[in-house]
Input
Amino acid sequence: MRYFYPQSLSNLIQQLAKLPGVGPKTAQRLAFHILHVPVKEANALAEAIIEAREKIGYCEICGNFSDEKICELCQDNDRDRSTICVVEQARDVVSMERSRSFDGCYHVLHGAISPMEGIGPDKLNIASLLLRLRKGSVKEVVMATNPNVEGEATALYLAKQIKPLGIKVSRIAHGLPVGGDLEYADEATLSMALFGRKEI
Output
C-alpha cells in the first residue's frame, strides 16, 4: 500500500518546492525541519513571510525594495547624487553595496531587455530613470547590468537614450575574478578583461 503525506504536509512541500532552487527532495527536508522546530519558531517564520510580503514594496525614486515610500539609500543625504548606478534587480543593489566601492545612488530596472521572453523597454523601469536624469543634477550613469546578452542589450539601449542628455554613460568592467586562473577563463571573459584593462 502506497503511503501519502497528510494533506497539510503535502501542501507545505508543494509550496516550498515552488521556491527558486528548491527541488522536491529539498522541499521535503525543509518541510520536515519546520515540523520539528518549536511552534514558536515556525510561527515566527510564517509571520516574517507575511510581514515582508505585506510591507515591502518599491522605492518611488529608484525602484529598490523598501518598507517606506522612499528607501533608506535615497533618503541618505551623504550619497553622491550626481552618479546613478543602474542595476537589473533590487538584489543587485545589495551586491553593489557589499563592495563598498560605490557611494552614489541607484536605479533598479526590474529586469533586462529580452525579445525572446517578450520583455521590451516598455516593461522595464526606464521611464522613471529618464525622468530623474532630465532634472539635470546627474553627471554620470554607471551601467551595472549583467554581463550576458540581455544585460549588454539593455546597457546599449539605455546608453543611446541617455547620451543625448549630455550625461556620461559608463559600463562596469568585466573580466577575471580575483584569485582566478587564466587557464580556466573562457575566451569571452579574457576578451572583456583585455578590453577593460587599465594603466597601472
The longest strand covers residues 80-87.
